[in-house]
Amino acid sequence: MKAYKGFDKNLQCRGMQYEVGKDYEEKEAEVCRTGLHSCENPLDVFNHYAPATSRYCEVEAEGKIDKSDDNSKIASTKLHIEGEIGIAGLVKAGVKFIFDKVQPILNTNTTTGYKAHSATTGYRAHSATTGDEAHSATTGYYAHSATTGNYAHSATTGDYAHSATTGYYAHSATTGNYAHSATTGYEAYSATTGDEAHSATTGYKAHSATTGDEAHSATTGYYAHSATTGNYAHSATTGYRAYSATTGYKAHSATTGYRAHSATTGDEAYSATTGDEAHSATTGYKAHSATTGYKAHSATTGDRAHSATTGDYAHSATTGDKAHSATTGNYAHSEVKGRESIAAALGINGYAKGSLGCWIVLTEYYRDDNYDYHIKSVRTAKVDGKEIKADTFYMLADGKFKEVEE
Fold first, then answer.
1. 3-class state of residue 390 by DSSP
2. DSSP state, 52?
3. What is the largest CA-CA distance in the chain?
4. What's the domain range around 351?
5. How many other C-beta atoms are found inside a 10 Å radius of the C-beta of residue 329?
6. How confident is the model over 56-67, as pLDDT tens digits?
7. What does DSSP assign to residue 44?
């Protein structure tokens, strides 16, 4: 059985190390208890591994297989790691998974019955269903598709063809240019592959994904993930633990919920989070990353890609050349590794470090009789390898640079 699995940055899952191309086996398989776990629906993997720091693979589940009653999660006694596909591959696989749910087997335009299918192939031909588990599909230009029943799938392949669902577990997918997709139901997925094809969900655990250029994706539900792979394709979430990720050039990503992570891989694709413990990361050139929440870390790997955090204990790091890192929160660390980069820690008890040739900026505070903190001194130093060691954290103490153990 083809499935998909998430891992941490080291390709580990729950402490177990995996390798691409290898086979793994366990004696028993019971979902959430024993066995080797994966998901049939690619987008369900985001529930377990956030895009900011995770890796994704296509796998083959074999042997004894136990399926979850709540989602597509499975446990198997045997698992083969086929290959790593990344965020873009996972999103594209998710689009196909959703679209394959719809098979236009009846040539009718509208149905209201339970498990009643609806399909159209003509130009401007509408398709609608209101019954539970009632599928709806269109292939013509300007052909709209809509479902309101639970488990009711909706799909369109024509340009300008809209797709919408409001039912519980109701999936929505479009592949045409300018084809919009929207869901409002609980755990209702939404996906588009066409250029400038928008995707939006408002339901709890409602995932949203787009692969087309300038295709926007947005979710407002709790645990509702959002992802785009096209250039200029923005992604945003507002729900608690609702992740957001983009892979295209200038494709921005933003989240506002608690522990809602945000990540981008394209050049000049910005990433930002406002929730506590909501991490933000970018890998592209000039792709900036910023967080405002408590313990919300920020990291960039591209040249001239700046990283900033304002929350307490929120660390900031960059590895690209001329990529600056700054923190203003208390006990927040700042570090840089690229050439001619600046690491600044401006909060109380902030640390900073840099590679050889970089600069660090540190601030020292004192507390008055009313327990208010005030700036005592601000100092800047170049990491020269002598007075200031490379890749070593420093803080200010009595106006002097002091090494800090990690």
1. coil
2. T
3. 81
4. 308-406
5. 25
6. 999 999 999 999
7. G
Dist CA 383 CA 354 (whole Å) = 7
| Residue that has been written with the tokens 């106006």 in this structure | 399
pTM for the predicted model, two decimal places = 0.76
Residue 325 belongs to some domain of the structure: yes
CA distance 297 to 280: 6
Neighbours of 401 (CB within 10 A): 18
d(CA 184, CA 171): 10
User: Distance from CA of residue 350 to its chain's centroid?
Assistant: 29
Written as six digits, the tokens of 61 are 């589940």
Cα–Cα distance measured from residue 318 to residue 205, given in angstroms and rounded to the nearest whole number: 32
CATH number at residue 21: 3.20.170.40
State both tokens at 119: 């399909």
Tell me what pLDDT residue 108 has.
Answer: 41
- pLDDT digits 0-9 by tens, 233-255: 898 889 888 888 888 899 899 98
Write out the two tokens for 156: 């369109």
Give the Cα-Cα-Cα angle 221, 226, 231 (nearest 5 degrees).
Answer: 150
Domain stops at, among 54, 84, 114: 84
Q: H or E element: which one contains 36? A: strand 36-39
The total domain count for the chain is 2
Nearest to 197 by CA among 182, 183, 186: 182
Burial class from Cβ neighbours inside 10 Å (0-12, 13-18, 19+) for residue 186 reads middle
Task: Tell me which long-range contacts 300-307 makes (C-beta under 8 A, separation of at least 24).
Answer: 302/267, 303/338
144 belongs to a structural domain: no
Structural domain ending residue among the three candidates 84, 115, 132: 84
Residue 103 domain-assigned (yes or no): no
